[in-house]
Design a protein that fits this description.
Largest interface: A-B, 95 and 95 residues
Strand order of the largest sheet of chain A: 2-21-18-23-16-15
Number of strands of chain A: 24
Helix content of chain A: 10-25%
Shape of chain A: globular
Oligomer: homotetramer
Number of helices of chain A: 7
CATH superfamily of the largest domain in chain A: Jelly Rolls
CATH class of the largest domain in chain A: Mainly Beta
Largest sheet of chain A: 6 strands, antiparallel
Structural class of chain A: alpha+beta
CATH architecture of the largest domain in chain A: Sandwich
């Protein structure tokens, strides 16, 4: 309760009743919660374990068909601070999606921005605006807002991956539009590389036929081989005494839109981090929330008061302004996504590195 | 409930229990609510009447002191769809603030962006980063994020005005910071024009000492005389057969940041509209929510299914994508603010004029 | 001649002849001139006197008709370093234009950006894309590239003013297009304010019917009353101990495009400066060239090695990187335009204030 | 001579003498040349032959030492329309540079933007701000303004390549600064890839340690293998019926700054074009001038009234607004650079494709 409240009295009670009747609320009783000294979000740090998630997804694969209506066999992380809503953070959705051999997730489009990250496996093609995009281990794949997309599994093995979207943000702010597309994916081709990559995934080059800035990255798939090479190069540069890493023992890349140099989609930032065995990051706080997934290796993570040992496939979430520290037991590779572009575009971003002084 | 759900079975029940235990939620049961075909916000259209608001504010003036702790004698509109929270819309705060003769609202600063709009009265100076800004009828006054500000009433009359902020958005997304300033306003000067206006409120001119773009408008006060003149000019141009008005009989201006030409603050758009007596606007839908206040005149407003006759000082709120129509009984002047810059900066803005076809 | 040249020899002579035959030039003989240590432009500082210019313009008024073909009775400053070309600087054109009672300068349009500045007199309307714009003492008036424009003198007195354009730059870089319009101006109305001003010259306000950024300022006329008020305000703020002036005793404004906050046209910057009697500016060097005109008052100007006493109407030109100092004998008001936006947009701008250290 | 001149008379002669004495030039006698209906640049289309250039460069290698003072053994194309100045176009410099085994071109920096393109050979490293960059056949290498750079040949063979700079533009506009660096290159390492490439030449990825937009591309070298792959992909997409090529049989990429998606440097655009054997481009006109070099293959080029058969290494220049058509005899690969960013940044760009209608 906010300090320095007026003394209780019958008149005050009557005034407060009047407020309630007229759909009014005084600031002076609420300001402490509404306007805290620093962000105090309802969401809580939490970790989900891959070895728990995957069997539940497999079981859903047996019991729940995929098709029109439910649209996707996706199981979302529900932050324990957010009242049971399927929200990893107030702004971000994170789910494990599961597709069995021969299955097809029907095409649709929506204003929510989406991506996939593949922690293991392969055999699914996601078809984005008619362009078939192979999904393979370590790849980061985009489905920007209002792009039609569906998935199908052409292999003899099931495949699971992670979906990231801005569903909670779009829901809260009221900007959701949705349209159904065909029930079967519009292309069943299975090329190694998408047409988008063939046009756009050449370093520093763009097709002369497309020279305007685009609000979303046209690179449909960021392949693991490139991400791995970039991280390897950064650590080699550090070994040689040259700049490049974020901090000692910590290489990282941001996935970007080659038409602007900015984030891949307007609301979502995506990054890949690699820590050398034994490295530890400086404590870092940032306005905005994030979801991390361990790609390979193991280590210890502290988020605010929470601490977990994490391993392959584990996911954890970071509230706004919570302090994060990573310590690598082995070489530790992590995928991260966050809502930071929202704050940067609204000039509300803040970062503090090195902890409370 | 979303269509095409799997048939109930004990295994499915067990699976769903497993989800709940592990803080997981399936998409296929929630997608209908989460990802609607078009925005279906929880907030509802609603109107608050000035003749109800003002007496409650006056009563609060008698019973509730203003000072450190409660900080402001502000009474917020609580949208009936938002569970009692003091939110006019999911993103916007709107409140009546009331200051009695000789009172002082202590200085503080916060990352929330704020403004005042004066529907009647005068006699208060708001002091923004040390610059005293007179508040008078029809004026629109800025307190951008992280600017220190306090108010004091130097007159012998109480004064009421409207505060607009992005408190709900900042609260939801977790980006609030707050600091206390001095308990007494840092300047008790009462100049006609603020220093900010003297530097910046000259049409098309900027001081050579400040040539970089600024994230917020440096114009502390947009005076009624300028707003009124601009609206008058637009209607005169229409009379002479020249372009300028938005649509027949409907003049409007946007308050802008002269260093960029864009909105006054990163999250808030503010506009002033004037309808000739008898004019009616085309139905308009827009992503994002808005708050309107009648400045003078009367007319009829339709927002989605709701319809009200509105008069001086009345406030009403518009949910995302709800259709709005205004019809002027007399010349009708309205102030409007909205969260549209959030959507424009995130490329999620959409507008439809002319209704569902 | 550049240092360290190869020793002369018959073979070298033959090589150099071979170069010449094949339209080739070696860098090693030219680098000293081509790539100097700091800008060493061919243009020279020079001053033109109003009391000389005006009688020549009057005489031209008697002898030279104005009409299609010659298009304008404009007499350009020809920098003594530029080989007789009608260029005030390598990039900028400055001319005195003269129109007698009842005369009409036919409409045309061109990609060159143009403006007028009125050092004295009134009675001419310039018609820009059909909008009649009164020209009065102290006004700064725009004719951006590809806008049709003509002038006519509706008064019983002749009128002279200054034209500024980017003709030399456009000529050198090869980007000139030109079209003839009607021989008589397309509107003979003589309103006090142009339609453009009525829509746009309200501080911090823009018409809701035009919300996109525009490459040129839509304000057709920047009136002296606003410029004068802004300068007066800055000096008053200085008297009161507040920031605002550029340096002690030196107030200045930049004319801006209200849709962007940037310069009025893509290639031309325009400013107005006021020095208190007795004030002296710090030495300033800037990449790019400039033209100044004294509006009122008198003082001493140093540009590089040159020094002049200047008075009402006098014009002087400043080469790139030449050091400029102004000293005011009386209150000294000056209009200035420059090509700085070219360098800023190409990231080639540099400024040094305070002289060579 | 411009039409409709005043009749000759003694008074007119005297007036014109008065103009000349006072360094004034009338517009009405010059407007036809100064403000043409469309660009009519002084520069002329011209082609230089590699089989002529290379022997002259070799001969210069014998006779002219490279070192401090002359700085570079570079031989510039001197456009026949530009009075003997070493300018390929009014804005662009193009030269063949030649370095013999063991030679070293001393380090310096200048505000002129520079690049190298390698039509054949290898064995030189250019050291840019201390980072050694291997130069190999087909590579495009950057030395943006104010970066220190020198070259040294570590091989047993001489090497020739093409330099492109904005020297004429910088000279004309007066924005040149220059500084000497060490006489010997600051690093004699000979890595396969530069540090810049290791950090930046990964498609769609940027190092998290450098997230701000940069005015120049940080990619020091655009390697032929990537350019070739991108062009090959475009033609394959065309074969499969998908979009990507500029026009039938014509693939092309633009070299870009990955931090912005824009051109590699503020004043210079660089592209690579590939025509299938037998393909012919649509006639194209563009504001701004360009230099092309044939990388491999042969064909016919028309530029305005000129027409040449071109082959490996040949260079040709295109004036502003001249119509260009390319016809490929064999598969034809061409490198192109132009000054288009200058016009785009100043909103003076225009393009016409398909010829005069």
């Amino acid at each position: 309760m906010t300090a320095n409240q007026p003394d209780p009295s019958p008149e005050l009670d009557e005034l407060y009743r009047g407020f309630a009747e007229e759909l009014l609320v005084p600031l002076w009783t609420e300001i402490g919660d509404l306007m805290p000294m620093s962000p105090s979000p309802a969401m809580r740090p939490h970790a989900w374990r891959w070895k728990t998630l995957l069997p539940l997804a497999e079981k859903a694969g047996e019991l729940v068909p995929v098709g029109r209506g439910g649209e996707r066999r996706a199981i979302a992380l529900a932050n324990p601070g957010l009242g049971g809503a399927p929200y990893a953070t107030p702004t971000l959705w994170a789910a494990i999606q599961y597709l069995r051999p021969g299955e097809n997730a029907p095409e649709h489009r929506h204003t929510q921005n989406a991506f996939r990250f593949v922690v293991e496996g392969e055999g699914v093609w996601t078809v984005v605006n008619g362009d078939p995009v192979a999904m393979r281990r370590g790849d980061f794949l985009l489905t920007p807002g209002w792009h039609f997309h569906g998935h199908h599994n052409t292999s003899s093995e099931p495949m699971a991956w992670i979906d990231g979207l801005d569903i909670p943000f779009v829901h809260y702010t009221g900007s959701a539009f949705f349209e159904f597309g065909p029930e079967q994916v519009s292309s069943t081709e299975t090329p190694e590389r998408s047409r988008a990559e063939r046009l756009w995934a050449h370093p520093g080059l763009r097709p002369l036929s497309q020279t305007a800035p685009a609000m979303n990255s046209p690179i449909a798939a960021y392949r693991w081989e490139h991400t791995d090479a970039a991280l390897t190069d950064q650590l080699a540069l550090e070994d040689e005494g040259h700049p490049g890493v974020v901090e000692p023992g910590h290489a990282a890349v941001r996935f970007t839109n080659p038409t602007t140099g900015g984030d891949v989609m307007p609301t979502i930032r995506a990054e890949f981090h690699r820590l050398r065995a034994g490295a530890e990051t400086a404590p870092r706080q940032e306005v905005g929330s994030a979801v991390w997934q361990v790609f390979q290796g193991s280590g210890t993570v502290r988020v605010g008061e929470a601490e977990w040992t994490v391993d392959h496939g584990d996911l954890f979430v970071v509230p706004s302004w919570a302090e994060v520290t990573l310590a690598a037991a082995t070489q530790l590779d992590l995928f991260r996504f966050s809502d930071t572009p929202i704050f940067e575009r609204l000039h509300a971003d803040r970062v503090r590195v090195g902890g409370q002084r």
